[in-house]
Amino acid sequence: MRKLLNVLYVTTPDSYLSKDGENAVISVNGIEKFRVPIHNLEGIVCFTHTGASPALMALCAEKNVGLVFLNEYGRFLARVNGPVKGNVLLRKKQYRLSDNEDKCVPIAANMIFAKIMNCRNILRRTSRDHAGIVDIERIQKASSYLLYCTNRVKKATSLDEIRGIEGDAAKVYFDVFDEMILNQKDDFYLNSRNRRPPKDNVNALLSFLYTLLAHEVQSALESVGLDPYVGFLHRDRPGRASLALDLMEELRAPFADRLALSLINRKQITAKGFIVKESQGILMNDDTRKEVLCAWHSRKQDEITHPFLKEKIKFGLIAYSQALLLSRHLRGDINGYPPYLIK
Question: Does residue 7 have a pLDDT over 80?
Answer without folding.
Answer: no
